[in-house]
Write a structure and sequence with these properties.
CATH class: Alpha Beta
Shape: globular
Structural class: alpha/beta
Distance between the termini: 24 Å
Order of helices and strands: EHEHHEHEHHEH
Strand order of the largest sheet: 2-3-1-4-5
CATH superfamily: P-loop containing nucleotide triphosphate hydrolases
Number of helices: 7
CATH topology: Rossmann fold
CATH architecture: 3-Layer(aba) Sandwich
Strand content: 5-15%
Helix content: 40-55%
Radius of gyration: 15 Å
Number of strands: 5
Amino acid sequence: MSSAPRVVLVGAPASGKTRIAKKLGSLLGLSVVDSDRIISRDHGPIPDIFLSMGEEGFRRLERTAVREALMSSGIVALGGGAVIDPETREELKSHTVALITISEEAVAHRLGGSKRPLLQDGVESWKALVTEREPWYQEVSNRSFDTSHQSIEKIAHDIVDWLEEELA
């Protein structure tokens, strides 16, 4: 029997995907799988991977981690750049996908001292990434949830309500 995630979370770096996934897992009694955590588990810290393998090497590892994550039956959070890969975008078409968004103003405080390799220039780097990836986020997602002015708890409950509507 093949399994599929109950919901997959995609979105910009620092939008809250991992925290929302954990809250959803708690609310729904489901396991949580995070593609970035798979990469770290198998290959070490992501900043170190970028240093040793570059972004291209990281993206190869990420594709493998995404495949593994999408075989789970719980809640899945994908790294912000996972949607770059065309195979990932195609695979996500068969899943329930929630896009987690956040405004530039709201994300600014989350990026201070960021160790994220592609966000070394803070908000300016983040804006460029989001602008580039936005069409892909829209392509793969079924519904969007904005974390700019809502608590993680509220967003998680909104997603649960949406998932229940989808089943009805």
